[in-house]
């Protein structure tokens, strides 16, 4: 099996919300943060990162403002809004429930049926 | 919240596009540079690092496009793109665009013009505060078929006002004429006598000064006058110092206490029952005289303002209780006190609602024909653009995308039509104001306000979708493969659509032209109607006596006798006479009568009834009313001689059917008044309009007015039959009046012929409007037919070529093409005839002298329509016969 996992459809949004929930980040920072907390086991298509950011901003879950990056350059920083926080919570709860159900199904032994 | 942020990002997308693009570029550049720097830190050479960063990022432009899409930029952008493309493609076809925009402008413009009239007359609120609370109470007429606006008596009004609980204010009013003397020629003014409460009920404030603003009459205010804005400008030069000035009216000195604002002329004659004789425009208001004759005539109109929170139903119930009380007190009044309560707005718009709605319906049909015509044009055009659509489809445009682009294009057309239509509507409204019937209430208030603009916008968008959608579906329907095959048969759907549009145009045009035809017939039967008089060279005017000087009817009669003699000796005058009202000079007074031959039954329908007019000897000769039997009045008919009357044919037939009424007796109302002997029978004359149904009428010598208080002899209408052009006699007539009494005004001079003309202004206006709508519809249908047949001839060139090559004669080809047109016309006529039968039934009340199913009208309209439309077919058909087979076959 590959070292890196393909991203499940629809999970990118949730991951971005989680990443910016730990503190404001610019786009590249979001990429690095996800890599870091997944210990490099998730690879995000860079081309789809920005459309996702724009989508989340359009929906009002994150907001953006221009600021200065760690290497003193102008960069666009994203932060989680209150609505985004609620969204992240419901998404995470849904995800966890789904994961429980699926792992329960996969863990079923013939004796249990 | 989320909605707000989405809106913000849309707005930003729409208006800050350049900035957003810059920001997006900067953000992505930052990403790539940081990525590259991180690589450099792992000892990758800088150039290589940048290349790898780009590579790993993937397709940059695609990412950008996806970003834009996420922000909602795309929708607006493609819309703008469609708009630009649509405008460009319309500009490339100026001929098509001009025809389509003009057609739509005709439809939308005429609809908007009619709508603006409807808006002003029926939809705009009245210019009074809280108009919904203002009502006009009446009594139902005791005689059937006489309407539901029987006026109030003074006793009843004041009794009701004292006890009314549901009304905040109640005012009674009646018309009166006043003679202004003291400066220049005596001037006759139309005025209103109004009780206290009249202005309060309406809620109007004077421009300055005050009105009679108490709830109850107070002594000491009888000689006060409020003047209209117009009179203030005309007679007093707009002088603000006019308050407190004294003017002489009817020989009494009145003091001016207020000036009304511009536009306040309540009540207008056309808003009130004919019988009360209200002037077209009131010029002044004076208090109703008190103390009042308790048993005075029933000649008061009443306007009331309901108490806040009181409903019309409660007020009606209160009136009912009051009426029951009166009937209990006066047994002879039983049946006369059924209340009628009208909101002021329906009192004012009255009978104009139906004709206006008829016009609105007619003009909507014109709009439909215009839409269907443009739809046909578009259909033909979209077939020509088939290849374009096929190509765009092949390049990946979805059907929805193509539909949207076509709709945007059509909306551009429709809005163009709407814009031009607004100009047309403006011109139309101007035209209507200048030439329209002056008795259409509130006509001068008509203008293009916001509501009309909104209407145009909605009409334009609705028509854009209505005419645009079917052809757009047809255009995008054909599949790629079929379109690429030359001369596909997939055009079947389009052809069916085109034919049904055409059939509907013919049918709609037929309905309109039939309606117009019926109105034309109505108009001419009005003119041809036997009105009972001869208007050639007859001059009329109204003579009003100053009531201060001439208060007694015997004094009045002596004066009238003097005037009569002076006018008779004026050179150029053949016959002269006067009556309470000349033909078409207004509705006469009516009264219950008693006939000894017919004992009165208790049923109120059976109570005999007749109009009651005074007349002088020679009056019938002056207006040319034939004296059918018996004799005219003479100077020897006086108070002292036997009392006589002349009755009309209708009265003779109604009350003495099959008998000779000469020598029979008839009396007015109650038993007090002596019976009169019938000495003559004259033809019926029309008094209020040419279309009125003749009612029984009796004429009484002006010298035998024994009732004295009723009807008023203060105003008489004079008729002079002259030997020359009547207008040239005006100064001689004025001189004759002056020599009798310099205070006598000559009011409303007119020829009898012009009174006839004025009375048909409204039917003529409706007829002309409907006829022009019919003509537009007919023109559009012919253009449509021409287009369809031309197109089909063009498509069948090859077929025609083959037929001719095989020996078909040009005549056969002509017959083939015309036959196609004739089939469509036939179906259209059949449907249109059915619709006309239904629609014309709604028109019955507008018709006079012609039945709604008049076969002559239907037949001639069908013939006209067939002729015009087949003419439109003939031109392309002739072109078909000129097809050269060799060229036609070589084509393609």
Question: Secondary structure elements and their pairing?
Answer:
The complex is a heterodimer of chains A (113) and B (892).
Chain A: H1 11-21, E1 25-26, H2 27-37, H3 46-58, E2 62-68, E3 74-80, H4 82-106
Antiparallel strand pairs in A: 1-3, 2-3
Helix pairs in contact in A: 1-4
Chain B: H1 2-15, H2 17-41, H3 46-57, H4 60-70, H5 73-92, H6 94-123, E1 134-139, E2 152-153, H7 154-163, E3 167-181, E4 187-194, H8 198-202, E5 208-209, E6 224-227, H9 229-236, E7 246-249, E8 252-259, E9 284-287, E10 298-306, H10 312-329, E11 339-343, H11 344-349, H12 353-384, H13 386-394, H14 399-435, H15 450-477, H16 480-484, H17 492-528, E12 538-544, H18 553-568, E13 573-579, E14 589-594, E15 609-615, H19 619-623, E16 627-630, E17 644-648, H20 649-655, E18 665-668, E19 676-682, E20 697-701, E21 715-722, H21 730-740, E22 746-751, H22 752-759, H23 761-795, H24 797-805, H25 810-842, H26 855-881, H27 885-890
Parallel strand pairs in B: 4-9, 6-8, 15-20, 17-19
Antiparallel strand pairs in B: 1-10, 1-11, 2-10, 3-4, 3-7, 3-10, 5-8, 6-9, 7-8, 12-21, 12-22, 13-21, 14-15, 14-18, 16-19, 17-20, 18-19
């Amino acid at each position: 099996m590959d070292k890196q996992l393909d991203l499940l459809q629809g999970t990118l949004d949730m991951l971005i919300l989680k990443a910016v929930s730990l503190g404001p980040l610019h786009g590249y920072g979001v990429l690095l943060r996800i890599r870091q907390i997944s210990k490099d086991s998730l690879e995000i298509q860079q081309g789809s990162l920005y459309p996702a950011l724009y989508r989340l901003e359009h929906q009002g879950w994150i907001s953006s403002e221009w600021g200065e990056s760690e290497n003193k350059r102008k960069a666009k920083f994203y932060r989680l809004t209150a609505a985004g926080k609620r969204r992240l919570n419901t998404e995470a709860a849904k995800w966890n429930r789904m994961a429980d159900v699926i792992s329960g199904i996969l863990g079923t032994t013939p004796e249990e049926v | 919240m989320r909605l707000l942020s989405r809106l913000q990002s849309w707005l930003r997308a729409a208006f800050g596009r350049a900035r957003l693009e810059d920001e997006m570029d900067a953000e992505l550049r930052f990403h790539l540079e940081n990525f590259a720097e991180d690589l450099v830190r792992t000892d990758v050479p800088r150039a290589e690092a940048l290349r790898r960063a780009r590579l790993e990022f993937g397709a940059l432009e695609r990412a950008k496009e996806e970003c834009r899409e996420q922000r909602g930029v795309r929708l607006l952008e493609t819309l703008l793109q469609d708009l630009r493309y649509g405008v460009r493609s319309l500009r490339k076809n100026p001929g098509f665009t001009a025809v389509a925009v003009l057609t739509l402008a005709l439809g939308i413009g005429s609809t908007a013009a009619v709508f603006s009239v409807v808006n002003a007359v029926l939809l705009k609120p009245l210019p009074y505060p809280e108009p919904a609370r203002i009502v006009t109470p009446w009594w139902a007429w005791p005689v059937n078929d006489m309407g539901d606006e029987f006026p109030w008596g003074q006793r009843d009004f004041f009794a009701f006002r004292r006890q009314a609980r549901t009304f905040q204010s109640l005012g009674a009013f009646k018309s009166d004429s006043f003679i202004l003397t003291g400066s220049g020629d005596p001037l006759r003014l139309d005025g209103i006598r109004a009780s206290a409460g009249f202005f309060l009920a309406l809620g109007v404030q004077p421009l300055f000064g005050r009105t009679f603003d108490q709830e109850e009459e107070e002594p000491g205010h009888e000689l006060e006058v409020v003047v209209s804005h117009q009179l203030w400008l005309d007679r007093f030069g707009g002088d603000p110092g006019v308050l407190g000035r004294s003017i002489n009216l009817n020989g009494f000195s009145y003091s001016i206490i207020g000036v009304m604002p511009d536009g306040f002329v309540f009540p207008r004659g056309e808003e009130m029952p004919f019988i009360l004789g209200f002037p077209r425009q009131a010029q002044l208001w004076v208090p109703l005289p008190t103390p009042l004759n308790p048993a005075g005539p029933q000649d008061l109109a009443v306007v009331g303002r309901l108490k806040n929170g009181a409903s019309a139903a409660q007020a009606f119930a209160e009136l009912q209780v009051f009426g029951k009380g009166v009937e209990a007190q006066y047994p002879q009044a039983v049946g006369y006190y059924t209340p009628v309560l009208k909101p002021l707005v329906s009192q004012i718009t009255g009978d104009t609602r139906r004709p206006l709605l008829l016009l609105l319906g007619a003009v909507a049909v014109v709009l439909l024909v215009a839409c269907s015509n443009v739809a046909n044009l578009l259909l033909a055009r979209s077939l020509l653009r088939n290849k374009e659509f096929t190509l765009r489809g092949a390049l990946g445009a979805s059907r929805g995308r193509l539909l949207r682009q076509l709709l945007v294009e059509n909306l551009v057309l429709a809005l163009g039509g709407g814009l031009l239509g607004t100009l047309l509507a403006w011109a139309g409204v101007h035209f209507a104001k200048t030439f329209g019937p002056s008795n259409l209430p509130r006509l001068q208030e008509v203008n293009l306000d916001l509501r009309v603009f909104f209407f145009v916008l909605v009409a334009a968008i609705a028509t854009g979708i209505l005419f645009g959608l079917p052809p757009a579906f047809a255009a995008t329907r054909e599949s790629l493969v079929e379109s690429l095959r030359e001369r596909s048969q997939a055009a079947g759907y389009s052809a069916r659509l085109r034919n049904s549009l055409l059939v509907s145009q013919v049918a709609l045009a037929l309905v309109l032209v039939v309606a117009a035809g019926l109105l034309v017939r109505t108009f001419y039967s009005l003119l041809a109607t036997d009105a009972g008089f001869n208007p050639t060279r007859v001059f009329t005017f109204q003579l009003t006596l100053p009531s201060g000087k001439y208060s007694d009817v015997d004094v009045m009669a002596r004066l009238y006798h003097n005037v009569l003699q002076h006018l008779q000796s004026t050179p150029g005058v053949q016959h002269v006479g006067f009556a309470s009202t000349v033909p078409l000079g207004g509705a006469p007074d009516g009264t219950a009568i008693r006939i000894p031959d017919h004992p009165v039954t208790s049923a109120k329908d059976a109570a005999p009834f007749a109009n009651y007019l005074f007349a002088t000897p020679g009056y019938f000769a002056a207006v040319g009313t034939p004296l059918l039997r018996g004799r005219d009045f003479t100077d020897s008919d006086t108070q002292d001689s036997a009392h006589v009357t002349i009755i009309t044919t209708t009265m003779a037939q109604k009350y003495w059917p099959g008998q000779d009424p000469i020598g029979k007796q008839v009396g007015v109302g109650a038993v007090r008044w002596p019976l009169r002997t019938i000495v003559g029978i004259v033809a019926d004359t029309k008094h209020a309009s040419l279309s009125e149904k003749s009612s029984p009428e009796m004429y009484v010598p002006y010298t035998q007015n024994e009732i004295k208080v009723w009807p008023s002899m203060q105003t008489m209408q004079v008729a002079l039959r002259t030997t020359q052009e009547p207008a040239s006699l005006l100064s001689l007539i004025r001189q004759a009046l002056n020599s009798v009494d310099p205070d006598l005004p000559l009011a409303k001079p007119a020829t009898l012929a012009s009174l006839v003309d004025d009375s048909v202004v409204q039917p003529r206006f409706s007829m002309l409007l409907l006829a022009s709508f019919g003509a537009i519809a007919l023109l559009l249908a012919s253009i449509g037919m021409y287009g369809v047949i031309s197109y089909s001839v063009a498509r069948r060139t090859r077929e025609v070529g083959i037929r001719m090559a095989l020996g078909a004669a040009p005549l056969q080809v002509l017959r083939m093409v015309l036959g196609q047109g004739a089939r469509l016309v036939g179906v259209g006529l059949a449907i249109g005839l059915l619709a006309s039968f239904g629609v014309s039934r709604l028109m019955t009340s507008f018709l006079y002298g012609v039945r709604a199913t008049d076969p002559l009208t239907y037949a001639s309209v069908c013939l006209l329509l067939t002729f015009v439309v087949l003419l439109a077919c003939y031109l392309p058909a002739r072109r078909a016969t000129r097809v050269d087979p060799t060229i036609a076959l070589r084509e393609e």
